[in-house]
Design goal:
Blueprint lengths: L2 E2 L12 E2 L4 E2 L20 H4 L7 H24 L1 H54 L4 H11 L4 E4 L4 E3 H17 L8 E4 L4 H11 L5 E3 L6 H10 L4 E5 L3 H8 L7 E5 L19 E2 H6 L18 E7 L7 E6 H14 L7 E4 L6 H14 L2 E4 L8 H7 L4 E5 H8 L14 E5 L6 H8 L3 E6 L8 E3 L8 E2 L10 E4 L25 E6 L15 H5 L2 E3 L7 E11 L4 E7 L3 E4 L2 E4 H11 L5 E6 L8 E7 L7 H11 L8 E5 L13 H6 L9 E5 L5 E3 L2 H8 L3 E2 L1
Parallel strand pairs: 2-3, 4-14, 6-8, 7-11, 8-9, 9-10, 13-14, 13-15, 15-16, 16-17, 28-29
Antiparallel strand pairs: 1-32, 4-5, 11-12, 17-18, 19-24, 20-21, 21-23, 22-23, 23-24, 25-26, 27-28, 29-30, 30-31
Helix pairs in contact: 2-3, 3-10, 4-11, 5-6, 7-8, 10-11
């Protein structure tokens, strides 16, 4: 929504990768590389008809290699071994100078330090995971070892809470014992709808101790989206905070009868409201049950999770449809948390600050995982505050801060303050820090290192920028690309569909050529495994077959990336029917369905448009309403109740005519190109104001947006 001037505070905390999440990742703006568009398919007649170019370097190599080998043998025979060795090295260098050429030596020289650091980190990650796998350890086992080592150290801190490792463990044991006594066992699913607080972590951790899987539900969801998240996760029960009671009760009658409800209250005496349609007629008060449960250990006879068992579900919108539940196993949690720990050089004594929601991978795995697995302290916040970010870091003596791109922009927009430099933060990490503000951010706040990462919650193609290269979201080694098998392949930039050659295989992109990012799938390898979603049909859509050889498979991200000559990767754009706004993936099909219902089942087209000075793409909805029957004020109120903030269209356009394809699909490419420019559009245009009300978008308003006087 639009606000005049510079926003200092605001915006719900949101996270990345996720792609869940986790995060899937927040998309930075296009880099200054200005790469060309995706190349024509190799199957195109224009390419096939071209005469084949002779690779003279290859022929020269074939001639030089045996010739130099023969010379080496003769010198070795007549002059002695040292002359032979010297000549052997000379022949090797000469061969490499021919192919791949002298440029390869230069690239190898400048990227070897980066690649070496990453290689050693990757080895440490694999060793860490292998140790846990060999002993069949789960997240709870490692956490309890940290509790035994440092019971009174602070584990999770917030504005109103300071919980030690002992307190988190005791609460988790109470949760485990309550649900064990209620008959829940390994493989059961209990949803969690709770704001950022210590009990959030302790609750799912406790459930994991008896093998129960916990879907972490987005607290912004309401109505059909919330109901869908509960049912698609196959929940047999739901734990929800008192702040979400009305949202739960609104859908309670539509939930399956077997779903038990447990309300967690801030105060034990808080009212619990009965809901018609529930089998027992009343949600159970969880606080009272926890008070009487044993806290020292989990009851004997309770089931236990194994290393490869499912731990939590983290929801992501994917490319189409309602939220999908991405599977996170114990081993996957180990890999994500340990991967970023070793790659970015975290320390066990670090104090982490995350204002991101804990139901996303970024906050809930990458940051919280540092406490659970490595014994660090994590400071959480219920809602992100731009002006409070570095003051919180100073107050809690944080050494590592987490962000998403929008957050960095909000923070940078705040007035200068003493705490800008009066803090101990040595590093920030996250996803989506725009290259346009990256240098200003690190300069103003004195940040020595930025760890930018990219990945999807459900995917296996996760990358990190470990040397603070501005704008890069990660890299692939130019020397040893086989170590971490990720690639950028040629694809249709609009659909994301891979382009294939005459053999039916995919083609790797050259440097500075954008394409779709993929990660090779290797079964049984926690680093390369693709766990996908609870919905196996949805999972199959994220897998591409016959990539570089017949029978191989890869996870396809749906994002267009581009690599430079040194292997640094940069985000280019998103493909398909998804755009990113306020750190969240927005599914156009879901918004279209909701909006069409509210607009009297009229044709609706939803798409993302670029707004100057703003990260991501803002939602815009084009409604076919030639008779102008839709009441804008009423529609705005209904949208506020039906959709979370980030999914509500920032612009409305009421179409007088509509364009269909030959298969009766709505065209949106031309609408996207026109954006919200009233000079190009004769239809009525509206934009959402800071109070959530839609107002006419005139030429003067449009010019204010271009001048950055109206912010979204």
């Amino acid at each position: 929504m639009c606000t005049a001037g510079v926003a200092v505070d605001g915006g719900a905390a949101t996270g990345g990768a996720d792609t869940a999440d986790s995060g899937a990742a927040a998309a930075p703006s296009s880099t200054a590389l200005n790469p060309p568009q995706v190349a024509i398919s190799i199957n195109s007649p224009e390419i096939i008809k071209q005469p084949k170019e002779v690779d003279w370097r290859r022929y020269l190599q074939w001639i030089l290699t045996p010739a130099l080998s023969a010379v080496t043998g003769l010198i070795l025979y007549y002059q002695g071994p040292w002359y032979g060795v010297a000549t052997l090295y000379a022949s090797l260098i000469a061969t490499l100078l021919v192919r791949p050429g002298w440029r390869w030596f230069y690239i190898a020289a400048v990227t070897t330090p980066r690649d070496t650091v990453a290689l050693f980190a990757y080895i440490r990650v694999l060793m860490f995971i292998k140790r846990q796998e060999r002993k069949n350890l789960n997240i709870g086992d490692i956490f309890e070892a940290n509790v035994a080592r440092q019971p009174d150290k602070l584990a999770i801190v917030s504005e109103s809470q300071q919980w030690t490792f002992r307190q988190v463990n005791e609460h988790s044991n109470r949760v485990a014992n309550v649900f064990h006594s209620h008959g829940y066992k390994k493989g059961d699913v209990v949803g969690l709808l709770l704001e950022n607080r210590a009990e959030f972590v302790a609750t799912w951790l406790g459930l994991s101790k008896i093998g129960v899987i916990t879907p972490l539900i987005n607290t912004n969801l309401r109505g059909a989206s919330l109901q869908h998240s509960i049912t698609v996760g196959q929940c047999t029960a739901l734990i929800y905070g008192a702040n979400f009671r009305s949202a739960v009760m609104d859908i309670a009658k539509d939930l399956p009868a077997h779903v038990g409800l447990y309300q967690f209250n801030d105060e034990a005496t808080q009212e619990i409201v009965a809901s018609e349609g529930l089998s027992q007629g009343l949600a159970q008060q969880l606080n009272g049950l926890l008070e009487t449960a044993a806290k020292d250990k989990v009851a004997a006879g309770a089931s236990r999770a194994d290393h490869h068992d499912k731990l939590v579900y983290i929801y992501t919108s994917g490319t189409t449809g309602l939220p999908k539940a991405a599977v996170i196993t114990h081993s996957r949690y180990f890999f994500i948390a340990a991967g970023i720990h070793y790659t970015l050089g975290f320390k066990d004594q670090d104090v982490f600050y995350t204002p991101l929601p804990l139901y996303h991978t970024a906050g809930g795995v990458m940051s919280i995982g540092q406490a659970l697995l490595f014994g660090s302290t994590v400071v959480v916040r219920k809602k992100f505050s731009a002006s409070g970010y570095f003051s919180d870091c100073s107050r809690f003596q944080c050494t590592v801060g987490q962000y998403i791109g929008e957050m960095a922009r909000y923070i940078l927009a705040t007035p200068s303050a003493p705490h800008d430099r009066q803090h101990q933060v040595r590093m920030v990490f996250g996803n989506g820090l725009r290259p346009q503000i990256w240098p200003q951010f690190v300069e103003r706040y004195g940040i020595k290192k930025v760890g930018e990462f990219y990945g999807a919650t459900e995917g296996n193609a996760n990358i990190m920028n470990n040397d603070s290269t501005v704008g890069a979201i990660g890299f692939v080694s130019r020397i040893l690309p086989q170590i971490y098998p990720i690639s950028i392949i040629k694809a249709d930039p609009h659909t994301g569909e891979p382009l294939r050659n005459s053999k039916g295989l995919c083609e790797r992109c050259e440097a500075d050529e954008p394409g779709v990012f993929i990660g090779k799938i290797v079964r049984g390898n926690p680093c390369r495994e693709f766990l996908g979603y609870v919905d196996q049909k949805a999972s199959s859509k994220k897998v591409v077959h016959d990539v570089f050889s017949k029978g191989d498979m890869a996870f396809i991200s749906g994002d267009l990336l581009v690599a430079d000559e040194r292997g640094y990767l940069y985000f280019k754009d998103r493909t398909g029917d998804t755009f990113r706004w306020k750190g969240e993936n927005v599914s156009t099909s879901e918004v279209e369905a909701q909006l069409s219902n509210l607009a009297g089942y009229k044709d609706v087209i939803v798409y993302g448009v670029s707004v100057p000075h703003t990260e991501g793409r803002a939602g815009m909805a084009a409604i076919y309403d030639p008779a102008r029957e839709v009441k804008v004020t009423q529609l705005g109120e209904e949208l506020a109740n039906a959709l979370p903030n980030y999914a509500r269209p920032q612009f409305l356009r009421f179409l007088r005519r509509i364009d269909l394809t030959g298969t009766f699909k709505l065209r949106k490419v031309e609408l996207q190109q026109q954006g919200f420019n009233p000079e190009l559009i004769e239809d009525e245009l509206y934009y959402v104001q800071s109070d959530g009300v839609y107002a006419p978008l005139t030429l003067s308003v449009y010019e204010r947006i271009l001048r950055n006087e109206l912010r979204f």
